[in-house]
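Case study B.
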Amino acid sequence: MGKDPIISIRGAVYSYKGAPSPALCGADLEVLPGEWVALLGANGSGKSTLAKICNALLEPTQGDCFSLSMDCRDPACVPLIRQGAALVFQNPDDQIVASIVEEDVAFGPENLGLTSGEIRRRVDRALELTGLSEHRRRGSHSLSGGQKQRLALAGALALEPKVLILDEATSMLDPEGRAALLECLRELNASGMTLIQITHIMEDIARAGRIAVMQSGRIVWDGLPADFWRGEYLRFGFDEPGELALYRELISRKMIPEGTRPIAEDMAEALCL
Amino acid sequence: MKFAGGFSIGQFIPGESFVHSLDPRCKIAAAFVLLGGLFASSSPPDFIPWILCLAACSRASRIRFSSVLRSGRPVLFLIVFTVALNLFWTPGREIFRLGFLRVTQEGLAAALSMGLRLYLLVMFAAMLMMTTSPMSFSDGLERLMSPLRRLRFPVSEMAMMMTIALRFIPTLFEETDRILKAQISRGADFESGGILKRTRAFIPVLVPLFVLVFARAENLATAMESRCYVPGAPRTRLNPLEWSRRDTAALVCSAVFVIFSLLWNRHAAAAISSFVTWPV
Ligand SMILES: Nc1ncnc2c1ncn2[C@@H]1O[C@H](COP(=O)(O)OP(=O)(O)OP(=O)(O)O)[C@@H](O)[C@H]1O
Ligand SMILES: [Mg+2]
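Model:
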């Protein structure tokens, strides 16, 4: 132990104005530095709301929220939290501010008041990480859906956050784009970035180091993927992709060791050993 | 049916040309100087140097002259209307008669110069927008308007609004196109019937469009906030504006051109006008 959580939410309650029931009713989540957490849950279970609270976009009506050991309620901390725990939303068209790719990536750092040399360095790095370097001078509206999502990610990475929160930010990517992005996320995570990924996609979930499930405004399950794959997911109504059925069969026949991830490559590797 | 296509006057075309590299303040100021000169021109031969000037600008920005000319399409209706009005309703020496419509010598000259002036005006504005990225355009405007800050005018906020509006023009047209296609596939008819019927057919397009715009605006505001934007707070720039000697040179050139064009109007154009006898 010894590590302090980088994000710590305790008993957060939040209701939108005019909504009949609260979107969050007592959500608890602690994330340690360097973790990769997949946040799952049905539509309307409050995942996006929780993400916005972590980013200090919303202030919980009750409960506490600390991001990077700073209180989200303290106005002086809000800019630091937004920079340190960057958020990427689902629809890239709603996040792209500028007409040119590199100008859009620069938007965040420009708001931080950095020098133009430092802004350029961050823009170059973020474009490289997301594989958009060759498109830097293009019009942002002329990119494809998947490229736009990578642009949105680059915009968040240019803030050089410690925590990256992805709110279904990979939904428009094709398998190849997704694989490239997951590789990029893996590198970021390996270099110490904490990831919170809201997703419905099996591949994304399988790569996380920890899984949290939300249901009607609460975190109802939080644990290791191995436990999740052992059957928890059925309880929460996730359907079983073919890959998982095979995985369960292999585990029950003790053909692959427990703790193998339900990803095709990992299973194949375990079988060959 | 492509509704979107060429609806905004001059969309930015990224490039590395001389005009692209000029400071936006220089380009905005030069545009104003040129537009002033354009308004001082009135007879058809006055516009000869202007057409050449436009061609030169298009050359210096490496944008094909044909695309510059095409960018006036959205206002073509307005221009045709003005031309027709001048052509048929200017009293003077009659050239020929088409039913109750009289075309006069003066009318022909007025229509020609009015049409040319309007079209050139749009072209020069389009050149400015085609060679200046929305971000640097609004940066330039912000800097030019910064004295207004003393009067508590929210200059930076206005500039940011402009950046976003310009950024969303293509998106909006794409959305309109999408909604139109969806409506057409459900049997909507936008191409037959009178003006009233056709206008009415557009209502089911406008309603979802407005809903979309407001939802967009809200989401965008949230996203900007999450990227540390604070309205009115000082920001730095990836490409800070730098006034260089070539900007001064370009601005001086435009001023010299305007003076030249005024002299041309006084002498050369007058000579041409007296030389060319209009068909009677
Ligand atoms: N701006 C809003 N105003 C009112 N109610 C809202 C607003 N945004 C979300 N809600 C409500 O809050 C609840 C939680 O929404 P939230 O967006 O957090 O869900 P989610 O888990 O992200 O769902 P999804 O998987 O569809 O993205 C929902 O019942 C939703 O209807
Ligand atoms: Mg959501």
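The CA atoms of residues 79 and 118 of chain B lie 7 Å apart. The remaining cases will be described in the next quarterly update.
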